[in-house]
UniProtKB/TrEMBL annotation:
Its main location: membrane. The keyword ATP-binding does not apply. It comes from Psychroflexus planctonicus. InterPro entries: ND/Mrp_TM, NU5C-like. This is NADH dehydrogenase.
Length: 487
């Protein structure tokens, strides 16, 4: 007989006490930030204001989009945390670290000086590490915090080295001036700087092989995990968009595309092996970050920013509701994937229709550049959604068709609106959209991506024990962050 037992975990010291003052004021402050960001976005489109503040700070469309995103998710998560962590011994510290992290992000996207960018990047990592280990009475939390901080510090050092090289050869510490003088910097220096920049971004966004810090960060309270997955881990997309001109000048976009693609494929596989709901979500995040880096590699930095915003909505909700999924149940044999002919026909028709609608709404009418990959992903997503609906036996055949059509039309229209809106916000950035010509490497990898996706859906990896074990071992957290210390 199958049985399910709901269990509750309480590993944090909760004490009956009043909500700290900072936890009470941070929430309205973040809602004010979000509201002001929306007003500033409206002014950005309707006025000719000078958005430069001296030489050290500059507000542009990218800054405003991140202001609004961070303000919204910060306010939502803060509202949740105020009640969720009520009585928690370290609730005030949690609020201070959260506010510090949010302010660091705002500084990062508005800074125009190399020292400010590196400093804010470091403090983003420092405050996130503090959130991971906020419960300092818990040995595993302290170990996870220190482990993550090591990665974040290495990322900051690499970013610093990259900007020092560029600044030295451009003879300026101001980012806009560095970009203006890129063509005067030796090509090998630009290449080295770009590679350092890429590794710094991959570390913070937990792409393979730097993913273990994220899988070891399960000690963070649920609101901290939501903030991490909805905001912090998207750092690579923001970093690569800020320095798109350096990546393009160094011809490293193909490298980004391949690295992001491999991560997206592998993380999708390993997600299916997880039994812990937070580990499932962590692997899902790694896969999404891989896809975001792929978009940067394709030259669509605007798509990467739109993706990280939408991923924030998706992942913040999943983490804040993850407590509903905690249960102990009897393992069940996975169902075999069976696709009937009519289902395959519908999946194909709706997938192609979804791709065509996406191309029409976003103006992607070329089959000879990298935009074809975005269209391909849309087709796969619509096809997968269609299959999930048409196999549902509780609906009549007519309902399945209409529900599938309604969902894919609504979803693609919403995504196209977000994509086009972000593109308008990034119009000042000359390199926000730089489609790349298709090469043999990109075409080969696109085929590999498709093959990997279908192997994952068919569950073939379950029939290969050595691969199953290899993938499972790949996703184990650091040993010092699991059952290492006595409670």
């Amino acid at each position: 007989m199958n049985s399910t037992l709901n269990i509750q975990q309480n590993t944090t010291p909760y004490l009956p006490q009043e909500i700290p003052w900072i936890s009470r004021i941070i929430n309205p402050l973040l809602w004010v930030l979000f509201t002001c960001s929306i007003v500033l976005i409206a002014l950005y489109f309707t006025t000719d204001l000078d958005w430069t503040f001296g030489s050290y700070f500059r507000i542009n469309g990218l800054s405003l989009s991140i202001f609004a995103t961070v303000g919204f998710f910060g306010a939502i998560i803060s509202t949740y945390a105020k009640n969720y962590l009520q009585g928690f011994k370290y609730q005030q510290l949690f609020s201070i670290y959260s506010l510090g992290f949010i302010l660091s992000v705002l500084l990062f996207v508005s800074a125009n000086h190399a020292a400010l960018i590196v400093g804010s990047w470091f403090f983003m990592g420092l405050f996130m590490a503090k959130l991971i280990g906020v419960n300092s009475d818990w040995g595993e939390a302290r170990a996870a915090s220190n482990y993550a901080l090591g990665f974040f510090t290495a990322s900051s050092v690499l970013l610093g080295a990259s900007l020092v090289l560029l600044s030295y050869y451009a003879n300026t510490w101001f980012i806009n001036s560095i970009f203006e003088q890129l063509n005067t910097i030796p090509s090998h220096i630009v290449l080295i700087s770009a590679l350092l920049l890429i590794v710094a971004g991959l570390i913070q966004s937990a792409l393979f092989p730097f993913h273990r810090w994220l899988l070891s960060a399960m000690t963070a309270p649920t609101p901290a995990s939501a903030l991490m997955h909805a905001g912090f881990i998207n750092g690579a997309g923001i970093l690569f968009t800020l320095f798109a001109s350096v990546l393009i000048a160094s011809n490293t976009l193909t490298l980004l595309f391949v690295l992001g693609g491999f991560t997206a494929i592998i993380a999708q596989f390993v997600k299916l092996l997880q039994v812990n709901v937070k580990h499932k979500l962590a692997c899902s995040t790694i896969a999404q970050m891989g896809f975001m880096v792929m978009q940067c590699g394709l030259g669509f930095f605007n798509a990467a920013i739109a993706h990280l915003i939408l991923h924030g909505f998706y992942k913040a909700y999943l983490f804040l509701s993850s407590g509903e999924e905690i249960e102990m149940s009897t393992p069940k044999k996975p169902k075999k994937l069976k696709i009937q002919f009519i289902q395959a026909v519908l999946v194909g028709i709706f997938g192609l229709a979804g791709a065509a609608l996406f191309m029409f709404l976003t103006g992607k009418d070329s089959f000879t550049n990298s935009s074809i990959f975005l269209t391909l992903v849309i087709a796969i997503t619509v096809g997968q959604t269609t299959y999930n609906i048409v196999k549902e036996k509780s609906f009549s055949f007519i309902k399945r068709i209409f529900i599938s059509a309604g969902l894919f039309i609504a979803g693609i229209v919403m995504y196209a609106l977000m994509y086009n809106g972000v593109s308008l916000l990034l119009h000042e950035l000359s390199f926000s959209v730089v489609p790349q010509k298709l090469t043999a490497i990109e075409i080969s990898f696109g085929i590999l991506f498709l093959v990997g996706f279908f192997l994952m859906k068919l569950g073939i990896y379950r029939k290969t024990p050595w691969l199953y074990v290899k993938l499972l071992n790949l996703t184990q957290p650091n040993k010092n962050t699991v059952l290492k210390f006595k409670s």
